[in-house]
């Protein structure tokens, strides 16, 4: 009996690569590890230093820009106008004259002034004619001094040390009824407030402390009705 012919079938050999046999998650992890090791290897090279410095400078610049924008929009209104350039006309309305600190220097020890003489020599009217009462003080950042009105004396101020807003009551100023300017941190200012005129000093400097001297030509009794307090509610 003849043997039945056996039919044979040979399947084509499939070539399976190692990468295709891997699960996709394992392959992704291997690529991630390879990328990380490549970055670490690059950072160890000397020529990576300029690249790192560039990244650091870029991040620093972005951080400073964000801080500047944040402080500009979040600061109180009375702190925002410290960057305004004030003219001589503005100073005149506020009955104030400013000087660069270097202009007042007399010798290597620094500057020294007589507040009454400085105001008179600067053409400021309405200040103290003598110093019957003198007070010297400081105003820390964000602090307010005065914001009152004396009815019994004229007063002269010398202001220095920090960006400081000086406000003076002025009935002829439209809409506000006061004039105000900001004295620079590198300036010394002399200002006068005639009797019956409200005045205020505000430190608008984020860091420095304001120093001031007030000279009154009569003794003020603050417990009497000769002084009006808290004249401006926005300070």
TrEMBL record:
Q: Which Gene3D superfamilies match?
A: Jelly Rolls (2.60.120.10)
> Gene Ontology terms, cellular component aspect?
endosome; trans-Golgi network
Protein name, as recorded = Uncharacterized protein
Q: Which organism is it from?
A: Punica granatum
């Amino acid at each position: 009996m003849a043997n039945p012919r056996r039919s044979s079938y040979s399947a084509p050999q499939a070539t399976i690569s190692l990468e295709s046999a891997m699960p996709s998650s394992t392959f992704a992890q291997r690529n991630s590890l390879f990328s990380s090791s490549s970055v670490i290897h690059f950072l160890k090279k000397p020529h990576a230093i300029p690249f790192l410095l560039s990244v650091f400078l870029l991040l620093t610049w972005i951080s400073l820009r964000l801080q500047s924008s944040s402080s500009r929009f979040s600061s109180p209104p009375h702190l925002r106008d410290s960057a305004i350039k004030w003219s001589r006309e503005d100073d005149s309305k506020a009955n104030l004259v400013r000087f660069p600190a270097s202009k007042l220097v007399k010798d290597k020890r620094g500057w020294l002034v007589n507040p009454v003489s400085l105001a008179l020599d600067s053409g400021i009217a309405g200040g103290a004619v003598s110093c019957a009462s003198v007070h010297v003080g400081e105003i820390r950042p964000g602090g307010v001094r005065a914001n009152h009105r004396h009815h019994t004396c004229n007063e002269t101020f010398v202001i220095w040390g920090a960006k400081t807003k000086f406000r003076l009551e002025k009935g002829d100023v439209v809409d506000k009824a006061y004039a105000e300017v900001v004295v620079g941190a590198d300036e010394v200012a002399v200002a006068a407030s005639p009797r019956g005129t409200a005045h205020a000093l505000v430190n608008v400097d984020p860091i420095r402390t304001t120093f001031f001297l007030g000279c009154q030509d009569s003794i003020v009794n603050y417990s009497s009705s000769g002084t009006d307090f808290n004249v401006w509610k926005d300070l």
